[in-house]
Specification:
With about 350 residues, the chain is α/β, with parallel strands linked by helices. The protein has ten helices and ten strands. It folds into two domains: about 160 residues, Rossmann fold (3-Layer(aba) Sandwich); about 160 residues, Rossmann fold (3-Layer(aba) Sandwich), CATH 3.40.50.
Length: about 350
C-alpha cells in the first residue's frame, strides 16, 4: 500500500476500502425504517455531481422513482412532484449549497412531500436539517479525497437496498470477497492501460448501467483535470453522431450487460469499432467475449441483473481514473490544485422566491 505522502494514496485507500464497507452499509439499511417506501409511492432521487449519478443508478432499479439532479431541481421543479411523494437526497458532505437549498425549496412549495436523505457526513447540514429523516453511512464513506469513490458505491448500494435488500444481502458476501481478492490485480491492469497515451475517452453502457458510465466519465474528467475529454453514450446511441468523437487513440471503456439479449447489441457495436479501427477498447464483461477487444476485465457481479451491478462494477473505472491522473502528473487526491473544482462545491448563490 502507498504511504500517506504518496500522490493518490488517499484516493487509492478509499477505493480499496469499499468491499469492507459494503456489508456495513447493508447492516445500516436493515435497521432503517423503510415503511413509507411502498411500491406505489412516487419518489424523486436527487443529488449533485457524483451523487446525481448515484441517483441515476438507483432509479434504474426502482420503478416508481426517477432521478433529478439537485442542480436541476433548484431552478426547474415544476411538474416534478404530485400531491404527495418522497424526495430522497443523496450526499457525501451534505454541505453543498444545492443539497439543503433544494430541500428548503421543496418543503416550502410542496409541504406534503416527505424528505429522506442518505449521507456520508453526520455533521453535514443535510443530515441535520429539520424535517429530513436521514440514513447515516459509516464515517469512512465520507471520502477525504476531492473525488468521490467509496462515497459513490455506498450511496448507490444503500439506495438500491431500499428496494432490493434481500437480493443484495444474499449476493454481497461473495461479491465483497471477490472484489477484495481482485483489487490488486485490477489495480495493476488499470496501471498498465493508463500507461498508454490517450487523447480522449468514451464510456459506453446500456440503460441500467448508465449511472455507472456517467460516474466513470466524471472520475476520468476530474482526476485528469480535464486533460482527457470524455463522452458518455449508449451502445446504440453512439452510431447516431457521437461516433465521430472517436479516434484510434481513444480509450473506450465498456460496461457490458449481464443479459445475453442486450449484450448482442453491445457486441455488434464492438465489432464495428474494431472494423473501423476506432479506439483501444476495454470491456468490463460478465462473460468471456468472442469479440476481439484490447482488454477484457472480469465483471465483479456477473450474476446480478444490470440494475444492481453499479456499486461493484465502478471499482475498475475508479482505479483507471486514478492511474490516468498519475500518468498526467497530477495528484488524484487533489487533481485541481488551482481550485477550479473543490471537494465541496463553492460559489452557488441561492435566491429566495
Amino acid at each position: 500500500m502507498d504511504t500517506i505522502d504518496t500522490a493518490g494514496s488517499v484516493t487509492r485507500s478509499e477505493i480499496f476500502q469499499q468491499p469492507v464497507l459494503w456489508e456495513n452499509t447493508l447492516a445500516r439499511v436493515r435497521e432503517f425504517d423503510l415503511s413509507e417506501f411502498d411500491q406505489e409511492t412516487p419518489v424523486v432521487i436527487t443529488g449533485a455531481g457524483t451523487s446525481a449519478h448515484a441517483a441515476t443508478a438507483i432509479a434504474a432499479a426502482w420503478p416508481s422513482a426517477r432521478a433529478i439532479a439537485t442542480t436541476d431541481l433548484l431552478t426547474d421543479h415544476e411538474d416534478c412532484f404530485g400531491i404527495s411523494g418522497i424526495l430522497l437526497s443523496l450526499a457525501r458532505s451534505g454541505d453543498s449549497p444545492e443539497s439543503v437549498g433544494v430541500v428548503k425549496r421543496i418543503q416550502k412549495l410542496y409541504p406534503a412531500i416527505r424528505h429522506f436523505a442518505i449521507t456520508c457526513n453526520a455533521e453535514g447540514r443535510l443530515a441535520n436539517y429539520p424535517g429530513v429523516k436521514g440514513l447515516q453511512l459509516d464515517e469512512r464513506t465520507n471520502d477525504r479525497s476531492l473525488v468521490m469513490t467509496s462515497s459513490f458505491s455506498n450511496l448507490v448500494l444503500a439506495g438500491l437496498a431500499f428496494k432490493h435488500f434481500s437480493e443484495l444481502e444474499q449476493a454481497l458476501p461473495r461479491i465483497a470477497v471477490d472484489v477484495g481478492n481482485s483489487l490488486a490485480g485490477l489495480d495493476e491492469k488499470a496501471r498498465a492501460i493508463a500507461a498508454r497515451p490517450f487523447s480522449r475517452s468514451v464510456i459506453l453502457a446500456s440503460n441500467s448501467l448508465l449511472g455507472a458510465a456517467r460516474e466513470a466519465s466524471l472520475k476520468i474528467l476530474e482526476m485528469t483535470a480535464g486533460q482527457i475529454p470524455v463522452l458518455t453514450e449508449t451502445y446504440l446511441g453512439l452510431r447516431h453522431g457521437p461516433m465521430s468523437f472517436l479516434r484510434e487513440d481513444t480509450l473506450v471503456l465498456c460496461f457490458l450487460s449481464s443479459s445475453p439479449d442486450i449484450r448482442r447489441y453491445e457486441q455488434d457495436l464492438l465489432e464495428e469499432l474494431r472494423a473501423k479501427n476506432l479506439g483501444e477498447v476495454v470491456v468490463i464483461t460478465p462473460v468471456e467475449l468472442g469479440v476481439s477487444v484490447t482488454h477484457q476485465i472480469r465483471a465483479m457481479a456477473p450474476l446480478l441483473p444490470d440494475r444492481l451491478r453499479t456499486p461493484f462494477e465502478i471499482v475498475f473505472a475508479q482505479l483507471l481514473g486514478l492511474h490516468l491522473s498519475l500518468r498526467a502528473g497530477l495528484d488524484p487526491d487533489n487533481p485541481s490544485p488551482e481550485g477550479v473544482i473543490n471537494r465541496v462545491v463553492q460559489g452557488v448563490r441561492l435566491y429566495e422566491d
